[in-house]
Amino acid sequence: MRNEWLLVEHGNVIDALDPRVQPDTSVLVRGERIVAIGGDDLADQVPRAEPVTRVDATGKTVMPGLIDAHCHMTYGESRSEEEIDLYTSPELRTLKAAFNAQKVLRAGVTGISQPGGSYFIGVGLREAIREEIVLGPRMTAAGRYITTSNGLTDYFPDSVGVPEGSIGVLANTMSEMVNEVRRQVKNGVDLIKLADSPYGDYQAFTNDELKTITALAHQLGKRVTIHARGSAEVGAAVDAGIDWIMHGNRMTDEVIERLAESKTPLVPTLLLLANIADWGGLVGAPVPLRDGMARALEKSAETLHRAHEAGVVFVSGTDSGFSVTPYGEWHARELELLMDYAGLSAFEAIQSATRNAAVTLNLEGQVGTLAPGMIADIIVVDGDPLRDIRVLQDKQNIETVIKGGAVVVFNEEALARRWPHERGQTYSTSDLTFDFVQGRDDAQALAAAQRESAWSKSDQRDLVATVKRRETGAVMPD
Ligand SMILES: [Zn+2]
Questions:
Q1: 228 DSSP β-pair partners
Q2: pLDDT, tens digit (0-9, with 9 covering 90-100), for 355-374
Q3: Ligand 1 centroid, distance to 4 Cα (angstroms)
Q4: What's the Cα-to-Cα distance from 208 to each of 127, 136, 170, 191, rounded to whole Å?
Q5: How far, in Å, is the centroid of ligand 1 from the Cα of 145?
Q6: Average pLDDT, integer, range 395-416
């Protein structure tokens, strides 16, 4: 579908560099790159005999394609952590990830970074997209999250351990960590993902461990990111030179200052929390979980506003890949959430998902803005996101997706396909007692309460840990 030349004509250009819109402006692309931005005379730059693909963007917004710095293609829209970790068939999960990649691209997301996933599915998917075997956004990938026994992704009981299909891999000593970094790099990852404590109330790695892992990854030419919800972890991550940081829900002013000074990007990843808090009830998420997410959002807002005021660099990421954050559905909602919960302007939100996020694709300064020499990842949008950022959330408004200078053609029928829950072993969500079957009031009330707190009250703080505790209490068949 690629001519040598592409001309996106007469659009209102948001270049992600200057907050002012350039009205009635055209973008000329040759091959993969933008060559010029300007008026009607751009077409004169194309030699007469050479064909030009023309996209009429009159009255539309022309802007860089979105980048999602936190998108898990291997999760397969799982409804439980055990579906992600225990029942992951590498073969089927890989094929599903390949199918789902087109959904992400259709939403105007032309670049993603996968901060952790099962096996080396992400590496294979990245290559398949690059070689145009699979239709999808350009991509970078981590392997399994490196976790200690105290980190996020060692959540099953020790009798289960950290299984082969898990998104985590256990490393409790420095030498195990170093081995795992070396092994992952050998297998082609772009970045290392570290799993610090689930909620941010302690450090699961020592400062020395973070420094050693980061130094080794950097020596081998790879980036490092970390799940860090609390102040101590964020501070330690900054000191270790970690390249960008996930979450940062609670931070002291002192840590915020260091984070801002270091220019280390922060990827708050609010979407997973907000989708569960706002609409989890529509899809059967239990009340305590929804309440817990709502409270976490509220607490994060205070920290993130301070971070924004201090000049911290924000990057948009969504944790897409769960059943509550399906592929291609909500990537652009993060921009709205960053405005609501961190105080970004609409233009800053756009930058968080374009220019600022390019580093997570290893393409800093090469993608994410519209300027001569940049890779031509461009979307044409019906509506003005500077006036209403939410126009980016409706795929009907994403009229044209251009990746690497080529207009992408989608199979809309394929995009509509969804699959059922892969596997779970829940027998019921409440107990089937004699009194309940007889319809006796007390028993009905008890069953209702059980259904409401399928996740127990004390475990409302974090989705993954919550699912973990539910799993440990579940009845396993012989
Ligand atoms: Zn994640």
A1: 247
A2: 999 999 999 999 999 999 99
A3: 38
A4: 33, 38, 17, 19
A5: 10
A6: 95
